[in-house]
Design a protein that fits this description.
Layout lengths: L1 E4 L4 E8 L2 E7 L3 H23 L7 H13 L6 H53 L9
Length: 140
């Protein structure tokens, strides 16, 4: 049995004999399926957003590295050490955000460069058209 889904109903292709085929409308519960999928996606999204709010556990090697960095700064124990470790954790957590922001800035700069080159070519072609005595194409 083959079926093809539609927003309002399911078309069911039923083969009764080798030469005869029937197409019947069967009731569908696509609304319920859509609601269930939407609920699952919503719950998953909320879970992912909630877990992103916490600091990332970088592992014991990163902790040792941060501890050595703080000791080099002169903070061995106490408040200064705690503050330094928190700063190192924040720096490490923010590095992912900074990298993605840098990538976005680079992409925007590349788009701007492409647009500038396009505009320069268009202006050059318009100037050549003027030199030939033709009406130049308007450059946006």
């Amino acid at each position: 049995m083959f079926s093809q889904s539609s927003p309002d109903f399911l078309l069911v292709l039923s083969i009764t004999t080798p030469t005869e085929m029937k197409i019947m409308k069967a009731p569908s519960n696509l609304g319920a399926v859509r609601k269930a999928v939407l609920a699952i996606v919503t719950v998953t999204g909320i879970g992912a957003t909630g877990s992103a709010a916490f600091a990332i556990d970088w592992g014991p090697e990163a902790h040792r590295e941060d501890s050595r960095t703080c000791e080099r700064f002169g903070a061995v124990h106490g408040r200064e050490y705690t503050r330094c470790m928190l700063d190192q954790q924040r720096r490490r957590d923010d590095s992912l955000l900074n990298a993605s922001e840098q990538q976005r800035n680079n992409a925007e700069a590349a788009r701007n460069n492409v647009e500038t080159v396009r505009r320069m070519r268009c202006n050059r072609e318009a100037e050549r058209a003027r030199d030939r005595g033709e009406r130049p194409v308007f450059c946006r």
